[in-house]
Every structure is written in C-alpha cells, then in structure tokens.
Amino acid sequence: MKIVINPTYNYLKVFLQTLPSAFPESGEVIYEGRNVLKTFEVGTVSIVVKSFKIPLWINRFVYTYVRKSKARRSYEHSVEIIKRGFMTPLPVGYVAVLSSGFLSHSYYISLLVENAETIRPYMDFFREEDEDLRIAFSRYTADLHSAGVYHIDYSPGNILVKKQNGQFLFYLVDVNRMQFRKLSMKDVYKNLSRLCTSRDVFIAICKEYARYRQLEENRFVSSALEYRAHFFRNYTFRLSFKAWKKGHKDCLLPPAFRYRLYNSIASIFRAYSRVHKKFIRKKRVVYETYLREHDCGSVFPEKLLSE
C-alpha cells in the first residue's frame, strides 16, 4: 500500500493507513456511481474520500507502471490549482492499494468545503436575481483560462460555489483530468460548451467573459454557441443510444444514425419538394420518439420549432 500525505495533515496519517479496511463499512455516502464519495468525521475535521472504481486489468497495469493513477492525479492537480491561486477542496493525500503487483483500490482524500453547492441550478434556469453570480463566475472562468488551468470536465457538477463576506467563492472538484498549459480559443469554446442547459444563461456568461477578456463579443458568443450546440447534440445522441439499447430496439439502426441519415437525404433532395418533406417528417418522428426527452440543451431545430 502506498500512502502520500500533505505534511500539513500528518495528524491524519492513521486515518489514511486504516482507510482501505474502514471505507466499505463506515462513512456517510454522498455520491455512489462509477466512483463512491463518502464523508468522514475525524476528530474536529470533516473529510471527503473518493474511492475510484477498480480499473480493468489492462488499466491496472497502466496505472501501476505507465501512468499516474486517478487518485494521484487528483492530489497533484489540487496542489497545482492552489499554487496558481484558485480554490479546490484542500488536498490531504491519496492511498493506492496493490494486489498481485497491480493497482486495485485507490482513494483521494480532501477536506470538506462547508456550505457549498454545485453551480448546476444557476446554469439550468435564467433568473435576473442571479446576475451577480453569473458575472462572478464568468470572470472566474476567464481567470482560470488566462492562468492556463484547463479542467477537461468543466461541467456544473464539478464546480462548487458558496457566498462568503458578500463574495462568491468557486471551487474545482473531480480534478483528476486536468491540464496546465496555454489555452487556444478552441480550448476556451470547448471548455465552456457543456456548462449550461439554459441558452440564455450561456449567452450571458459568454458576453461577460468576452467583455472581461476584451474579446469581440458577437464573434465570441457566436462561436461559443456553435461549440455548445455540437456538445449537446452529441450528448443527446449518446443518451438516446443508451435508452435504445436498453429497451427501444424496434429498428436495427440506432436513433442518431437514422436522424443523420434522414437529414442528409432531405438536404440532398431539397430541390424535390415531395422527397424533401418526406424525409423531414421521418427525421421529426425519430426526434420525437427517441431524442426529445434527452435534448436538455434544446439544440435541435425540432425542439425550437415546437416551442
């Protein structure tokens, strides 16, 4: 077993040493999915432990001998984020457990951020009273990018916010997939693309981002909207494919393939009204049957036409 601990928290070493055996039966679950997050009370300290899923056999070799494990990257990236002047739950350390010479269980340990919530509610609905938060978040994101901090999964669930002394404080979480480098505009657009299901919130954030970084506003917003549409279209296709696999296999071809096929045929025969309309109708049937419920970003024309 390998244990790396932040010297500031050496007094928690015993907790880290006993974590692999204690984790399954103790702690309070706050998230359970591919990975598991639990909170623990150790003396007067509230701790969050993220237990990563045991890797597939090939990745067990990779994470042991080739690439840093997710737990190690979470710890090291958290340290780097703080060095660059931004906030993340304070990193305590990580634990890696080997079995037959290969990585099996791994844990990342950090302090709990009290009274914080994800920014998701503010990204899903446009409310005038949230303007100060949107401005603060836009500028925070711009500062991240200017400092070369690139969170690959920069999504609402991975950004915490709390208000303290009249200011909004933002924290990055789930930081094992990070890069620290100079960002291109393509990187910026891609990083922003998954933030908002609300188009109005997204436009407001992009406008403030552009003003703050002194970019040409209309061009920036237009390009960012294209990247957002691309992300949410693909996201809709992925979700519809999962649903189709589970119980909607009334056709051999998945919904995304049919939608794209009918759209292409309709475009090719645009000059032939009867054929064009026929495949537009087919495309709309696929959308209504398989895609609409997953179109959370409202990026498909069928959704816009029906509203």
Largest sheet strand order:
1-5-6-4-3-2
**Into which percentage range does the β-strand content fall?**
15-25%
Order of helices and strands: EHEEEHHEEEHHEEEEHHHHHH
Unreliable parts? none
Computed CA radius of gyration, to the nearest angstrom: 23 Å
Query: Average pLDDT value?
Result: 93
SSE class: alpha+beta
Tell me the major beta sheet.
6 strands, antiparallel
Percent helix: 40-55%
Strand tally is 11
3D shape = globular
Helices, by number, come to 11
Q: Termini separation (Å)?
A: 57 Å
Structural summary, described in words:
This protein is of the alpha+beta class. 48% of the residues lie in helices and 21% in strands. It contains 11 helices and 11 strands. It has helices spanning 13-22, 57-65, 70-83, 120-124, 131-146, 185-192, 199-212, 217-247, 255-268, 273-291, 301-306; strands at 2-5, 28-32, 36-42, 45-52, 91-99, 102-111, 117-118, 149-151, 159-164, 167-172, 178-180. The strands form 3 sheets. Strands 1-5-6-4-3-2 form a 6-stranded antiparallel sheet, sandwiched between helices. Strands 7-9-10 form a 3-stranded antiparallel sheet, covered by helices on one side. α5 crosses α7, α6 (185-192) packs across α8 and α9 runs antiparallel to α10 (273-291).
